[in-house]
Amino acid sequence: MALLPFAYTWRNVLARRGSTAVTAAGVAISVMAYVVITATAAGISRVAVGTGHPHNLIVLSEGATSAEGSRIAPPAVEAIRFLPGVASDAQGTPVASPELLINEAIPRRGAHKGGTDARFTSVRGVTPMALAVHDGVRVVSGRWPTHTGEVLIGRLLGPALGGVGIGDSVEFAAGPHTVVGVFEARGQIFEGEVWLPLEHLAAELDQREVSTVVLRVEEPLAIPALLEALKTSRRVKASVRPEPEYYAEVQRGAVAFVYLGNLIGALLGLGALVAGMNTTYAAMARRVREMGTLRALGFGRRSVGALLLVESALIGAAGGALGAALALAFDGFAMNLMGLAFELDVTPAGLGRGLVLALAVGVLGALPPARAAARLEIVDALRRV
Amino acid sequence: MLSRAAALLTLALRQLVRSPRRTVLTFTGLVISFFLYTALESVLYTLESVVDRTASQTAIFSRASGRGGFFRAALPQRYVESVRAIPGIVAASPVRFYFGRGRDEGSFAVALGVEAESYLQVRELAVAPAQADAFRKDRAGALVGRGLLESNGWRVGEKVTIRGAGRLPSLSFTIVGAIESDDRLGRVALVHLDYLEDVVGGAGRVSFIQARVADASIAAAAARAVDARFASNAVPTETTTERAHLAMVLSNLSGVLAALRAVGGLTLFITVLVVGNSVATSIRERTVEIGTLRALGYGRGRVLGLVLAESVFVAALGGAVGALLAFAALEGGVIRLPPRIGFTLGSDTSVVLRAALLALPVGLLAALQPAWSAVRRPIHDALRAAD
Fold first, then answer.
1. Dihedral of CA A77/A82/A85/A91: which sign?
2. Strand, helix or coil for residue A167
3. pTM for the whole thing?
4. Which residues, other chains included, contact A350 with Cβ-Cβ below 8 Å and sequence gap of 6+?
5. How many CB pairs under 8 A join A and B?
6. Lowest-confidence segment of A52-61, A144-153, B11-20, B89-98 by average pLDDT
7. What does DSSP assign to residue A52?
8. Which chain A residues are closer than 8 Å to B251 by Cβ?
9. A residues 138..197 contacting B (CB < 8 A)
10. What span, in angstroms and rounded, lies between the C-alpha atoms of A45 and A9?
11. pLDDT per residue over B300-350, tens digit each?
12. Which of A64, A66, A274 has its CB closest to that of B28?
């Protein structure tokens, strides 16, 4: 099968600029919407998968399935800290982080407490040991809170609350707190949280118990012994889970977006496909004589049919590339959903699938007209005006 | 006037039938676009109307200020007497949360400990009067929401036990009635507060106080009055109206809502472009014809009207069908979120109507430019296009 020169195809695509542009635009928008929604799901998954250290264990009170529902009393905290297998730092102190976690609706910048413009936020009371237990957490601007009423906010929380930064006030629990520092946490869920000293939060809430103790073990082989010690302990009644496993559940939120992305992408793609088919049929009808001439010159049926296919595929690819480029502009965009702060993650896989969508729309949309073109009889074609 | 419109429509129809493939494809494209647009608008409508549809306009609730978290029993129960005394408040009941373990891993079975008599005055419960009476009389009795009954396979009359979450003890009660509502109350069990306190201890403190105001217009003022009353107490209160609370919860979804709107807008934009392209193609093929019509004496306006009528007709039909299909798909549950999300999608006739009507300007806008440029072409120019 002699293929028509690419230049010929390319010039044809450029000839009907209006129709080409519209079809390409349709494909571009489908791809962009699909990739961006997929990036939302990917962003949520990335937080779920990236949070937690493989050597960390989260200790919750017995029967509790989440930190918010867990209560561990101070004596038990001590017993947990000294369980066998827990790593120690240079001073011999166990690398164990007791944490008090509450969920508050914090008013956004400029809004007042009790109003309708607030964001659900996790507030975590921690000790300095939290920096050792949670890998990758570091204060990037400002300082660790020292006085009562001072807090740290995660990198992604500031934008979520409408642009809150160092010196601004966030309101929760006993009242307004001043932001004295911002921390980052390498993409972990903590980047959407407020952190403050455990004893300050406990005093505000008038509560002695903590929500969890996060332990760093020397190495995973020590875990069975640790669990055994916990089971036989009379002082502590607790359940333990690996930290990454605990946060993996956050992924549930991504499911809805995967579904939404597929649905919207498919519908928009279908619409673009139908529009493309319309355009291609029109192109075929317009160039019947041209195709007849090509056939008379010796090009086979399939070459002529392929002509339309390749042109349509090119338009699809161009639209796909445009859509992908537009979607890339959204990469890293900070989003906040029901208390979960994350960034859109435009992955190569997502872009790839978007481009596949574009090509599919281009090729499938041209299939029926291409087949019709291939079936043309030379005589009929040349006779047509 | 009507007969002219009818004539125009007939001509338009005949025109469309001349190129059936193009008409069908354009129509199909329109159905798909308006299906998507209507579906998106429906989701937006369902979410944004949640406040109006499910929030009680006269409900306010107070919790202990600054004690962190909504569920802790930190509010002194005795406050309820003072709350009742506040002008505008019709009834008030203390409420205490109890979290039990649900059937699925990680899910909760929630029970609310309430003062039976006053709670029944605070909330209009969808409960049979005989069952409400039984609840009043049986201290260990419970009114259970329909959703909770079904998900646990319980029946009215049964005595059941919920295992407590965390270190909470188990809670047993006899189901004396069902709450037939599909909102939040449909998924909880109502038990007697004093009975609950016997089981879990910590008497004297509750999670919040729920009150009903005489009229929706004074809800916000009443909420402020409650907070003012306890402002200088050791445990001050924080009171919100149920409307405001739900609106706040909804604002946490603002990112998603904005995205849905954006996709909807893009869909319409693309539809205009695509239909315009189709019209332009159709007109290009009829250049000679249009020229002939004009040579015969038909004015620009009439020829323009003819072309526009075709476009508007296809758009209107495609838009209506697409919108109706979306309505059917959403209401019929063909499109639904994964069950874990626990939120039901639906639609409303107002959304469908608005979307279908939008098809008219879309059809008009799309055809405007190509039709006008065709009609503007000098007659001799158009006729020359005939080879």
1. positive
2. coil
3. 0.85
4. A35, A38, A39, A42, A327
5. 153
6. B11-20
7. S
8. 116-119
9. 172-175
10. 42
11. 888 888 888 888 989 999 999 999 999 998 888 777 665 555 567 778 889
12. A274
Q: What tokens does A163 get?
A: 């642009």
Chain A nearest C-alpha distance from B24 (Å)? 9
Say yes or no for a CB contact (<8 Å) between A62 and B255: no
Chain A, window 193-252: residues with a beta carbon less than 8 angstroms from a chain B beta carbon = 201, 204-207, 237, 249, 252
- Contacts (Cβ under 8 Å, ≥6 apart) of A374: A301, A302, A304, A305
Task: Give the whole-angstrom CA distance, residue B161 versus residue B159.
Answer: 7
Which are the contacts of A345, defined by CB distance < 8 A and separation ≥ 6? A39, A42, A43, A45, A46, A331
Six-digit token string for B8: 């125009």
What letter represents residue A379's amino acid? Answer: V
Query: Do A186 and A50 contact (CB within 8 A), yes or no?
Result: yes
For residue B174, give both structure tokens.
Answer: 């006899």
Distance from CA of B338 to the nearest CA of A (A): 7
ipTM metric: 0.85
Q: CB–CB of B103/B151 below 8 Å? A: yes
User: Both tokens of residue B85?
Assistant: 């005394």
CA distance A151 to A200: 10
Q: Are B340 and A255 in contact (CB under 8 A)?
A: yes
State the DSSP string of B125-177.
Answer: ----HHHHHHHHH-TTEEEEEHHHHHHHT--TT-EEEEPBSTTPPPEEEEEEE
